[in-house]
Every structure is written in C-alpha cells, then in structure tokens.
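Input sequence (352 aa), recorded before submission:
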Amino acid sequence: MKCGITATATPTSFSAAGGDGTLTVSTARECQWTAAAAGSWIQLGGSTQGQGETTVPFKVAANADPSTRRGTISVGDQQVGITQDAAPCAFTVNPRSDSVSADGGQKQITVTASSPQCSWTARSNADWLTIADGAQGTGSGAVRYQARATTGPARTGTLQVAGATVSVAQTSGCRYTISPASQAIVTDGGSGSISVNSDPGCSWTAASQAPWIAIAGGSAGTGAGTVAFTVAANAMGVPARSGTITVNDQTFTVSQAAGPPCVYRLGASASQEFPALPGGAWSFAVLTAPACGWTASSNAAWVVITSGASGTGNGTVVFNVSPNPAGNPARIAAISVSGGLSFTIIQDAALP
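Predicted structure, token format:
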C-alpha cells in the first residue's frame, strides 16, 4: 500500500533569538518515515526515524547575521519551510575614550561585530584628528587614527566609529618648570612656596596629594606664578612622612620629620584586688595617641588576657583571674603594657 505522509511544524517562523518548535508527522500506523533538517541551524530532537503518527521536537539556533534565513525540514517527500528573522547588527568599540600626547601620533580602535556581514564606517569630528586606515569595514576590524601635534592647551575631539562616539583627549603642549623641587618641614609644621614658570597663555593648577598639606594660595594660574602651601604638625607616634604637590605635570615633594614619641598611661586605676574564690574578670584602659600601637602581656599563668592583647590608640585590656587553690598564700601578678606600664593583680590567700 502507498503511504501518504503529512508534516507540519509549529511554529514555522522564529525571531533572531531562535527557539523551540514541534514537528507533527501524520501517516498510517504501518508507514515508516525519516525526518531531516536542511541547515545546521535547525536541530531535530529525539528520533529522526519512526512509524505512524508522532511529534518530533526541534530547536532553531540564534541568528547572528543581519539577513533573514530560510530552511526546511523534510519528512519523506514532504518539506516544511522554516523562516528566521534577521538579527540587528551590534558592534563593540574599544576603547570608547582614548588619550594622546601633545606630540600626537597614531592610535588604534578595535571594532567587534556581531556578524561578518555587518558593515560599519568611521569618521572624525575634529580637524586635528584624521582616519588613517579603516574608514569603512565589514565584520570585525580595526580603525587607525592620526592625532596632529599641538603646542597649545589640552583639547578633546571625537570620532564616530561603527555608530559609537569615541572621545580622544590630547594633553597640553605647554611646558612647565617649578623651583625648588622639594622642601623639608619640621615636626611642628610650617609653610613654603613654589615658583612656577611657563609661557604666557599656558594655564596650570596646583593640588595637594596629601591631606596634611594644604594649598594656601596660587591653586591656579597662567604663565609664571607662585604656589603657597602649609603643612600641619605631625602627630604623636606618626613616623616621618612624605607627600607631594602637583603643578600640572610637575611634582613638588614635601618631607616632614617624625611626630613626638608615643606616651602611654593607664586608666583610673593601676591595680585591682581579687578574692581567692572565685577569682574573676576585670579590665583596664590603655590611653595613648591614635597612631600609637601597644601590646599587653601577663606574667602569670593564673592571669589570662581574654581580649585587648594589642591595639592602636585608646583601648581596653580584658583579663580573667583564676581561683586561688586551697591553702595557697596571697599572690601577685602583673600585666605589662608598652611604654613601661604595669597593671598589678593581687589575689587573697585561699583557706586550707
């Protein structure tokens, strides 16, 4: 007997993202069939051979190309058409911002396209920027642009590359010198000044790069000028330090002597008595400057520091005193703290 086969697909049209579909095969129970997809982007799931009526799942892969594509699924002499939408072209442009020196030169921008079929163009929006190579392309590629040298102030221009705006910043062509290049300041702080020399019309700014150095005058200027600065006193326990003031591309270094040595003291009491039983817990304060580090240690096994064995600045030492064993006489221990400090622990004698 002759077998008649009918094949349908649901759906038959897919977006560029692809998706899942179902192929329905209708025929007599004793009729055998074979299914095949034309095009690697249509993938049949399950068995591609069968007998009688059945359904076969299939998957349509994502379309990365900017063109509609058409394929078929064949079942016997039946062909089911599958259509998939074109994908919009997408481009990744890197970098999106760039910089060149005052001397100019060539730089490169890469274009990564979502499909080898995607076309793009590149052009300059500034008279000092020109496209040296890659004014147009298809698929992924590169654009080389040329920046003209400048003797003027910093400037910014843009390029249009594959629909994206690329910002190009060029540094100033002005030249600057400062005098002196450094200054030493005593522990108690002080002030100083920097002479700035440049051509007329060349602007500059001065900025401190350390919180303990402040610009007192001349934070900005044009041509020759002077920057005044002040330096705060160095705090107790802070080592010798160095900071900078930048004047455009010039760096002025400030060095300052170390702060006074650390001084430590204990809180209200320097000792504490404890009964033989049950012992107990106690704490005492360590007072010092914020930058001063310290340690605490017990000289007896029956006095255990439970927290605050070290710290920086003000802190608290917490310790525990064990019970005094029966028949043991009164005993004394100490917790030593940096700076020659000592907290005394006295525990009563224990009855036999």
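Checked by second reader. The CA atoms of residues 93 and 111 lie 5 Å apart.
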